[in-house]
Amino acid sequence: MKTDVMGVGFHNVTMDEAIDHAEQLIAKRAGAYCVTPNAEIVWEAMHDEAFRDIVNGASLVLPDGAGVVLGAKILGRPLKGKVAGIDFADRLAAHLATTGGSLYLLGSKPGIAETAAENLQKKHPGLKIVGTADGYFKDEAPVVEKIQMANPDVLFVCLGAPKQEKFMAKYAPRLSVGLMIGLGGSLDGFAGAVKRAPKWMIRCNLEWFYRLLKEPRRLGRMIRLPKFVLACKKQHRREMREAKGNG
Ligand code: UDP
Fold first, then answer.
1. Residue 7 and residue 53: Cα distance in Å, rounded?
2. Backbone CA torsion sign across 87, 93, 96, 98
3. 107 CA distance to ligand 1 centroid (A)?
């Protein structure tokens, strides 16, 4: 069962449960994709029906940010917790290293995916990375063909939203990849090109603030967070009124 947060259905799972779920999808090899929306992406989905359908069409929908967890709490249907995309990807890489499964990295500026691959292999010895490609291609066809030839179990798709979600929805049914995962700027993180917030800030749900300090251009996008919180409050009041009316 999914938990509705402003029209996006989230899987209410812990990190371990998310990994279990992913393992099952990989084993099936049925063209599945996973999305990791934060509050900004939910806001986007609230205002774009076609994008919302793509997000809800994913086999696994993970709450990437503290904002989504807060929204669910305000709505009175709390989630078990945040499952950050980059942490999920790292755990999955560790899993693939033990099972011998293969991984392909797509996205970010030229050179980043290669550095991310080296770092991931250093961290998870034995991890089989069967290809990398940057995310600034003009023509999708050769990129898709390279992925098909490599035939990975898992594909990290790091093109930013909504490009990565649209790419996955289009190609998941056509490619024989076990699981595609949309992970935003995670390859920059794995490559060390963008540093993550200190642990205490992550623990205090302040990772968004750290990113804002490092990349002030994000302000335009982050302004959606308070709007999202207000929309959740309004929606909760509406649902309470409706429940009273029916009761
Ligand atoms: N990106 C890409 N192709 C594009 C546009 C963006 O590969 O056409 C990459 C960009 O280099 C960055 C990632 O997509 O690595 C988006 O990162 P951002 O931090 O904006 O995404 P978020 O994690 O916030 O969704």
1. 10
2. negative
3. 7
DSSP per-residue letters across 38-92: -HHHHHHHHT-HHHHHHHHTSSEE---SHHHHHHHHHTT---S----HHHHHHHH
Q: Whose CA is nearest to atom 23 of ligand 1?
A: 184
Tokens (6 digits) for 221: 């996008």
Q: How many H-runs (helices) and E-runs (strands) does the chain carry? A: 13, 8
Task: Quote the DSSP letter at residue 195.
Answer: P
Phi then psi for residue 109, to 5 deg, are -70, 155
pLDDT digits (tens, 9 = 90+) for 11-50: 999 999 999 999 999 999 988 999 999 999 999 999 999 9
Q: Whose CA is nearest to atom 18 of ligand 1?
A: 185
Q: Could you tell me the pTM of the whole model?
A: 0.94
